[in-house]
Amino acid sequence: MIYADLHAHTTASDGTSTPTELVEEAKRAGLTYLAVTDHDTMAGVPEALEAAKQAGIFLIPGVELSAEGPPGKAHLLGLGVDPLFEPMNETLAQISEFRRQRNEKIAARLRELGIPITLEAVTALAPVGANVGRPHFAQWLVEQGHVSSIQDAFNRYLADDGKAYIERETVTPEASIRLIHEAGGVCLLAHPVLVRLSQQEKIEQRIAALKEMGMDGIEAYYHSHTVAETERLLRLAQKYDLLVSGGSDFHGTNKKDVFLGLVNQGQRLPADRISSRILETARK
Length: 284
Ligand code: AMP
Ligand code: ZN
Ligand code: FE
Ligand code: FE
Fold this sequence. Notes:
With 284 residues, this protein is an alpha/beta fold. The protein contains ten helices and nine strands. The protein has a seven-stranded mixed sheet with strand order 1-2-3-4-5-6-7. Strands 8-9 form a two-stranded antiparallel sheet. Helix 1 packs parallel to helix 2 (45-55) and helix 5 crosses helix 6 (150-158). It binds adenosine monophosphate, zinc ion (ZN) and fe (iii) ion (2 copies). Zinc ion binds at residues 9, 13-14, 39, 251.
């Protein structure tokens, strides 16, 4: 059987495995297809492509954009995106700059709350050039004994309703979909069950709205999905003529209950469950 995992993070964002380590872990997990999908960066892709060539794994160059705007906040995966496409890299650089500005504000807010944090100390927890995000703040808060766990850090300070939450400027879903297409990729809604919906809104409406904007597919298989949730998403994919994808959302030891290659609470994902148009974007 051929297995796939089309959603995984590296040290280029908030994962703990380098791109090379991730590919080696994928090899050990018996995966044939792997997608590298870091948050708002493709910086890990060149190294992963090189490692995948050595390991004999089909690697899909990807990115996970945190989009915001009508019809709401959504994580959009671009799979088969050309890592050398200049307009994509310009947009990612712009998002990085928004992120840096936001991180400064989070640090300032935490200092107002009496926590002696500096952005330099948080940045030091991430590899050089990596996108620093809220998980790195959480790590610092745990290491310095201000909170008991990563989850505690989010609950008290960093979650969207936390005391040190700062909005972040970013791209809209519509612009994300267009950019991913221009870069040669397919655009998928990540973890549709976790998408924050506005009042009265249903997952189906959200998916239909994004399809209307040109989105190509949805992540029906995911580490936390139940069989019932996946079946419902597969029916929606059929109804709206959407491609089907799946992945774990592996983050290494930053998310200890998520394992590379495992979806639906511990199942491996046979590659034939994934639309061939997505698998065809892999580099050999
Ligand atoms: P950022 O990209 O800096 O906004 O951070 C987003 C990441 O923070 C997500 O990928 C999650 O891993 C994590 N995260 C966001 N909200 C929460 C939460 N309420 N609890 C735990 N982790 C969270
Ligand atoms: Zn993440
Ligand atoms: Fe996500
Ligand atoms: Fe992710």
